Write a sequence for this structure.
């Protein structure tokens, strides 16, 4: 890093402490270790993917939102951390390489999954028109926009793809911002980071108030603020590690141990206490972002750390993307199309849920092993030619 890049404005408040803008400026240019692979993230994914499956398998109206928010927080946190580390390592951020990596990570497994569903539609197992429209929306990442072209909404089995669309819409804007405005315009970059944090918190409050007034209507489903907060949580990690390196640990370092238990408590409360969901949901979203920081900084209580580090849990977590995109296919095949459209179980739930779950996990593991990993290896091999 050049000397000019290290010269950043550090505004001080009246009490002598750094202002939020000064804090962001210093944190962006802090010398911190690289993140590397965090096995705990795989463990967290390997646990939280199951509530998402079971919410869909039981036709529940609520339960998966906060879990998806945790995935959003992890995604924003990891992507932003890697972008900042790329700039520190090479002096620039390649947007082209970023999108290439995203495509290699997502597209191969998605194409196979959608291809199987279209094939099932062609032979009459799945509804033809609905499947084609949904597959189009999923492949081109415009899924939330195709609902008006589907005649029977009860036939839709790819509704969970909205989250994939939201992520890619977000990164289509966020990655260029990080590479450009939020890093290269050095005097103004800290202001933009603080604006992102403040704006996402404001959206969070408005979202909660809207839920209180309107209920969980579909319009509230697209919630990018967790992605933004997760991205900005990357600054918290940098600040924490920089302070540790100077021998000046932050006061909130030790309380990080409580982040994940608090998030799980909020998740359980939101599931059980319906009138309070409008309030518990935004609180849980903030805790999700803090919990991600605690995971990456080794601040977890022993029982949770033990669970996250189990080999099988981590293996399932590494395949959670494939499990997520595939999970409705075996469920609908086992439950039957007519029963699925009626949103009822054709067989006892204690048979349908475990069988669907086991088959889904097996498909996800196979997809990761035989599609995702070879695609990444091929990409790396071509890059090094």
């Amino acid at each position: 890093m050049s000397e000019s890049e290290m010269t950043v404005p550090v505004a001080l408040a009246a009490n002598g402490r750094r202002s939020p803008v000064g804090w962001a400026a210093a944190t962006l240019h802090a010398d911190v270790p690289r993140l590397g692979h965090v096995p705990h993230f795989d463990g967290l994914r390997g646990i939280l993917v199951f509530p998402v499956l079971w919410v869909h398998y039981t036709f529940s109206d609520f339960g998966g939102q906060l879990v998806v928010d945790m995935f959003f927080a992890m995604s924003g946190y990891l992507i932003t951390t890697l972008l900042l580390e790329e700039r520190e390592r090479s002096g620039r951020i390649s947007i082209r390489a970023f999108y290439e990596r995203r495509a290699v990570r997502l597209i191969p497994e998605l194409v196979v999954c959608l291809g199987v569903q279209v094939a099932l539609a062609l032979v009459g197992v799945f509804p033809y028109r609905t499947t084609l429209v949904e597959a189009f929306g999923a492949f081109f990442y415009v899924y939330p926009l195709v609902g008006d072209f589907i005649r029977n909404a009860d036939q839709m089995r790819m509704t969970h793809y909205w989250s994939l669309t939201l992520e890619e819409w977000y990164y289509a804007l966020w990655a260029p911002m990080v590479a450009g405005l939020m890093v290269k315009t050095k005097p103004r970059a800290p202001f933009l980071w603080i604006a992102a944090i403040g704006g996402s918190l404001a959206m969070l409050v408005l979202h909660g108030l809207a839920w209180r007034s309107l209920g969980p209507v579909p319009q509230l489903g697209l919630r990018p603020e967790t992605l933004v907060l997760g991205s900005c949580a990357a600054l918290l990690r940098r600040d924490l590690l920089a302070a540790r390196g100077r021998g000046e640990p932050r006061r909130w370092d030790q309380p990080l141990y409580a982040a994940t238990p608090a998030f799980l408590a909020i998740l359980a409360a939101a599931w059980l206490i319906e009138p309070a969901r409008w309030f518990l949901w935004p609180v849980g979203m903030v805790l999700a972002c803090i919990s991600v920081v605690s995971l990456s900084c080794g601040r977890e209580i022993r029982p949770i750390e033990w669970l996250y580090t189990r080999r099988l849990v981590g293996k399932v977590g590494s395949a959670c993307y494939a499990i997520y995109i595939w999970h409705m296919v075996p469920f609908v095949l086992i439950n039957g199309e007519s029963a699925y459209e009626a949103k009822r179980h054709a067989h006892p739930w204690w048979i349908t849920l475990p069988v669907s779950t086991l088959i889904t996990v097996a498909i996800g593991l196979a997809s990761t092993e035989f599609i995702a990993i070879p695609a990444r290896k091929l990409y790396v091999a071509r890059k090094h030619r």
About this structure: The two ends are 28 Å apart (CA to CA).
